[in-house]
Amino acid sequence: MADRLRTKMIVRDGEGRPVMVDDSTVDGEWADGDAEDVDCRCWGRCSTGESWTAQLWTEALTLRRVEVAKFQLGPVGATVGSGEAKDLGGLQLRGWSSVLGKADDDGDHRMTVIAVFEVGSAELREVELRVRILNRHGEEAESRDDSIRDPKGVCTLDVALWAKPRMITHGAEVEVTLRTWTPCGAASTEVFVLERGRL
């Protein structure tokens, strides 16, 4: 089962130098044997007579979601977090922290969440830190995310979002999660020559 298709197209000039690159993703759910149309577009200008070539790569990725923490929003100025290392299976969370700042001129509070992790032997294509503020009914009120592609070694992700004063007084919760994408399949085309007005 795949949860994301990541497609890349590289266009090279007559001397083999990359002149255009398109990198796109499509999220969904695909089982073995499923088909999906992928749209890649590159824009550029070449002289008449130049011979340009292109090649396409598509990789199927599997999503894994891990909850890092869930805590009550507030109080203002307090730091919440953990420096305890946590093995997430090919990815080690070294620590995370969250700070809720004082109100700005509009009365909103800026909350910042930082997570530090280390990529081990796992082949990861992307890691995303996602932070959601949930109201007292468990519904999403605010959310932001930060991500890194092809992470290596020690990496840091940080997210900043704004909280209304009523979210604090009404006992809103903060949910912090890490999402990872690992490859589960791949395919590519042969190098082909681009012709004007033709695919």
- Care to count the β-strands? 12
Report, as a whole number of angstroms, the end-to-end distance: 30 Å
Number of domains: 2
Number of helices: 1
SS-based class: mainly beta
Low-pLDDT stretches: none
Structural summary, described in words:
This protein is mainly beta and 199 residues long. It folds into 2 domains: 2-62 and 184-193, no CATH class; 64-183, Sandwich (Immunoglobulin-like), CATH 2.60.40. The protein has 1 helix and 12 strands, in the order ββββββββββαββ. The chain has one helix at residues 165-169, and strands at 2-12, 18-30, 53-72, 79-82, 86-87, 91-103, 109-119, 126-134, 140-149, 154-163, 173-188, 192-193. The strands form 2 sheets. Strands 1, 2, 3, 8, 9, 11 and 12 form a 7-stranded antiparallel β-sheet that branches. Strands 4, 5, 6, 7 and 10 form a 5-stranded antiparallel β-sheet that branches. The longest helix is centred in the last third of the chain and has 5 residues, at 165-169. The model has no long low-confidence stretch (mean pLDDT 85).
